[in-house]
Design goal:
CATH topology: Glutaredoxin
CATH superfamily: Glutaredoxin
Number of domains: 1
Shape: globular
Structural class: alpha/beta
Helix content: 25-40%
Distance between the termini: 51 Å
CATH class: Alpha Beta
Length: 181
């Protein structure tokens, strides 16, 4: 027990499987860091703008000023005054769910948006914009029905779909935006 098996050509550690898993995780982190993509977000507590390295999102980044956590494993709340800068300065694809609290289909789709944010952390930013609280932004993007989902890449609209959608359809939208980059 705990022995290291040796042969003339190979030494096998007793923790070989664990080491493989760790090596794969390290490779993923290094690949993300080589991409060096960032998202730009305003802290919802102290209102300071932060530039977050996408490869560090799993490390639960904190605001540079107040040091409160920036929880990116759930949809990021956008507002009228934060929308433009977040979209323009984020290097990852940004999926924005245009919704309203009173909207039944929006509430039906909310769990899929939550799960998408969890699954896509580090690969895309999933955000929500309440159309009742951001009428100018809603008008600028000609939101005529809700829920409407728009995917942005490099500050530009890449795709748009109106109506409630299941999680696989949302994932496909984000994947298509990532490929088109």
């Amino acid at each position: 027990m705990g022995e290291v098996l040796t042969s003339p050509t190979m030494i096998v550690s007793p923790n070989f499987r664990t080491e493989i898993v760790i090596a794969r995780q390290l490779r993923r982190v290094l690949e993300l860091r080589m991409n060096n993509e960032h998202v730009t977000l305003r802290c919802q507590f102290c209102l300071t703008w932060n530039r977050v390295d996408a490869s560090r999102i799993d490390d639960r980044p904190k605001c540079g000023k107040c040091e409160r956590p920036m929880l990116l494993d759930r949809p990021w709340k956008l507002e009228e005054d934060t929308f433009a800068r977040t979209i323009a300065e984020s290097e990852l694809p940004v999926l924005v769910d245009f919704y309203a609290d009173w909207c039944g289909p929006c509430r039906t789709m909310a769990p899929a948006i939550d799960e998408l944010a969890r699954k896509q952390r580090g690969k895309a930013l999933v955000a929500k914009l309440n159309t009742d609280l951001a009428p100018q932004t809603s008008e600028r993007f000609q939101i005529r029905g809700i829920p409407t989902v728009i995917v942005f890449r490099g500050g530009a609209e890449v795709s748009r779909v109106s109506g409630a959608m299941p999680l696989p359809a949302l994932e496909k939208l984000v994947d298509n935006a990532s490929v088109s980059a």
